[in-house]
Amino acid sequence: MNVLFVCTGNTCRSPTAEALLRRALAERGVEGVTVGSAGTGAWDGAPASEGAYLVGLENGVDLSGHRARLLTREIVRGADVILTMSAQHRSRVESLGGGDRVHTLVEYAGTAPRDGDISDPYGSDLEAYRVTFRQLEELIEGAVTRMTAGR
Q1: What confidence tens digit (pLDDT) does each residue in 52-109 have?
Q2: Residue 26: which pLDDT band, with cuts at 50, 70 and 90?
Q3: Does residue 34 contact residue 25 with C-beta atoms inside 8 Å?
Q4: Which of 88, 78, 76, 66 is nearest to 18 (CA)?
């Protein structure tokens, strides 16, 4: 299974979600799942934002090696499950051929009808990044439970 997370710049939310899912899968001993991320407006090669990097380190997640990728039709084509940070991102993925493989992370994690968008901390203070990190942690738990059901 190839899982793809999508946000706007691929420097905050989606790389954090990617790292959290990798960690959750490793903790459960789940193999055969690859995880990546991309952004609808990403600048290829950009590092994780400073806030995401620092809050990640506070929580044992190292984003130092992350480099942003611009979402393309080819990246969408290669993913089995595509999880977006907002309905707007989902629409963009659908326009690139995502079909029924794309969901907002909130929907996929089973927490809807709660607000489906994950707050974008970009340009905010560290506390905003911490709030987003905690939200992603919670949602990743639901997502990994769904992904591993029946394994």
Answers
A1: 999 999 999 999 999 999 999 999 999 999 999 999 999 999 999 999 999 999 999 9
A2: very high
A3: no
A4: 66
**What amino acid positions are annotated as catalytic residues?**
7, 13, 120
- Single out the residue of 30, 66, 53 nearest to residue 122, CA to CA: 53
Give residue 149's pLDDT band: very low, low, confident or very high (50, 70, 90): confident
Domains of the chain, each with CATH number or no CATH: 2-148 (3.40.50.2300)
Closest to 60 measured CA to CA, from 23, 9, 96, 100: 23
Q: What is the C-alpha to C-alpha distance for residues 104 and 87, in angstroms, rounded to an integer?
A: 6
**Residue 9 pLDDT:** 98
